[in-house]
Amino acid sequence: MEDIISLGVGEPDFVTPWRVREACFYALEQGYTTYTSNRGMPELRVAIANYLHKYDLHYDPLTEIIVTIGGSEAIDIAMRTILSPGDEILIPDPGYVSYYPCAILTGATPVAVTTCASDDFKLTKEAILGKITEKTKAIMLCFPNNPTGAIMTHSDWQPIVDLILERDLFVISDEIYAELTYGEKHVSIAAFPEMKERTVVVSGMSKAFAMTGWRIGYVTGPEYLIKEMLKIHQYTIMCAPIMGQMAALEALQHGEKDKDAMIKEYDQRRRLVVEGFRSIGLPCHEPKGAFYAFPDIRNTGLTSAQFAERLLIEGKVAVVPGEVFGQSGEGFIRCSYATSVKQLETAIERIGLFLTQLDRIEA
Q1: pTM over 0.90, yes/no
Q2: Residue 203, SS3?
Q3: Which member of 66, 147, 287, 313 has the lowest number of beta carbons within 10 Å of its beta carbon?
Q4: 243 and 145 share one domain
Q5: CA pair distance 123, 293, nearest whole angstrom
Q6: Which residues of 194-203 are buried (b: 16+ CB within 10 A; e: fewer)?
């Protein structure tokens, strides 16, 4: 189909900053084409450790960090290390689409924990309590959240931390969007007292540094867990590509201004999109993280899949139906604002026209 505006892909529209690409070129020119340590380049692990201090996270680069093939590998090896057949893992719903399959591949059972628009899609202690059983081994977290853009503050986390400690659960915390918060600084659950020893933090270079195709992520955690994850990583992956690691090192050491400029642009787009959806009659909670809006389309009478399909065909705008992110996503659509302001404005206009035509048909 021609002339489609896509709000579907969860990927920055920015090109990786030149200084980062140049570091890769230089690495190739200098002959950096070999394996690295299974854990990743020592200097990159030091840079990751230093970078995480901003979130009050403190890890030994020698024993508590592994450089992975994106955050996706980190999630996979964390689940394969922590979970066993018969275990249950709690997963906030709606949530990123790969968590369920990764859990199932370990033989564990994923259990949805509902989050609601009325709570700004924040996770609550009450919702978790309703799902914990004797088989619950761990909880998977993703805040800032994909697809809702929800964040968790220190006060939001505290009762959940108390519950996790009381029930002796492991935590896998996907913090790939940590840099992408607006108005409030990201709070990592691993920074709370007694949480580091039971928490694996997953992150990477893809979102904040516009490096999706480089596939450089990392996982941090207590040495006893990282030691076991390393066994899976070294026998299945060996190591992340050295050229990508060199680029990631440059981004962490000298890419702060480039990153901040992109975040400022995302914030502008975020406000435009939320106001735009509300102006055309679609309720939309304010996303305070990531680069997604999650408008409510229930007043149209269509399912999220029906809405997305008809909008694509009739309105020429691609969005993701909320149902793919779990049952709690039904009645919503995910719209990425990681595209130009002009494209976003046109997309809002097209969606507004689609809604007007839909009303006429229904009438």
Answers
A1: yes
A2: strand
A3: 313
A4: yes
A5: 18
A6: ebbebbbbbb
